[in-house]
Write a structure and sequence with these properties.
globular; seven-stranded mixed sheet; transferase; two-stranded antiparallel sheet; Glycerol-3-phosphate (1)-acyltransferase; alpha/beta
Length: 289
């Protein structure tokens, strides 16, 4: 378990704010943090430190006041984000629309179409804070890969076990202020077109009590086609739509699950169509869809 590093008040200094509304970050400012499934009972105050960058022993302290756990950034995540931006922006002409509407200090659920293995990397490029995903637990059995996945906020899921535990963990992440990404199709598209949605995301959508943002990705299947390993220089676009608010979700009863799934499908499809039109040379969407 990675330790946390906090700077005492005496070492803090004024920082500028980036275009996402979060403080501009340098490698020295990044919190060396790995999210825990829960915070130890009674840990209401951060552990005291006597010197800058002192390592804090278990149990992990809660984040500093005003900085939710979901917007803290691990050093590994920070450097990966820098590398991905240096590659994807010039190589694939990566562009995004609609990310300005996100509340930078609150959790949110992102539901997107799924074209390529690149998709979990493309969505977070729009933000200066992590997007957390689920991944099969067997990936975490490899020592170094498992350690890396945890540091970039991926949550293991055992497909042979009950999904209740994974659902609780993702709900907990939302409460901590994380953005949580889900691909409701459940698998990558074969031809780039959007497939039917599986209903598994509905439970988290109802229980999360956070805004649900539809998202559309276009061009990822051309940049990294299914079954290929080499990245190709193809234009990629990502469009985020207006959120579906908790009160809108609550208006759908359990008996109306099919209608709620259809609403989500239509909203994701609209974002994907706008992203594809933009990728083909059309204008960027004017504001969230």
């Amino acid at each position: 378990m990675a330790s946390l590093v906090y700077l005492p008040e005496s070492t803090k200094k004024d920082v500028s704010v980036d275009n996402t509304g979060l403080p501009s970050t340098t490698p020295n400012d990044v919190v060396n943090h790995e999210p825990a499934a829960s915070v130890a009972a009674g840990a209401n105050e951060p552990a005291a430190v006597s010197a800058p960058c002192q390592q804090v022993a278990e149990p992990q302290p809660v984040p500093p006041p005003g900085l939710p756990l979901g917007v803290q950034r691990h050093r590994v995540w920070f450097y990966c984000q820098m590398v991905f931006r240096m590659v994807f922006y010039p190589w694939m002409g990566y562009r995004v629309s609609g990310s300005e509407q996100f509340n930078n200090l609150e959790g949110g659920l992102i539901l997107s179409n799924h074209q390529s293995m690149l998709d979990p990397l493309l969505l977070p490029l729009a933000f200066s804070r992590p997007v957390t995903y689920l991944a099969r637990s067997t990936l975490f059995e490899k020592r170094f890969l498992g350690a890396f996945l945890r540091k970039v906020y991926v949550v293991p899921i055992d497909r042979d076990a009950a999904r209740a535990g994974s659902l609780r963990e993702m709900q907990h992440r939302l409460e901590q202020g994380f953005l949580v990404g889900i691909f409701p199709e459940g698998t990558r598209s074969v031809d780039g077109e959007m497939g039917p949605l599986k209903p598994g995301f509905l439970a988290l959508m109802r229980r999360g009590k956070v805004p649900v943002y539809p998202a559309g990705i276009a061009g990822a299947n051309l940049a990294l086609p299914r079954g290929k390993l080499m990245l190709r220089p193809r234009r990629v676009r990502v469009v985020f739509g207006k959120p579906i608010l908790p009160e809108e979700i609550a208006a759908y009863s359990k008996q109306q699950d099919a209608e709620l799934i259809e609403l989500v499908r239509q909203r994701i499809a609209a974002c994907a169509q706008a992203a594809e039109a933009w990728r083909r040379g059309g204008p960027a969407p004017e504001g969230p869809l």
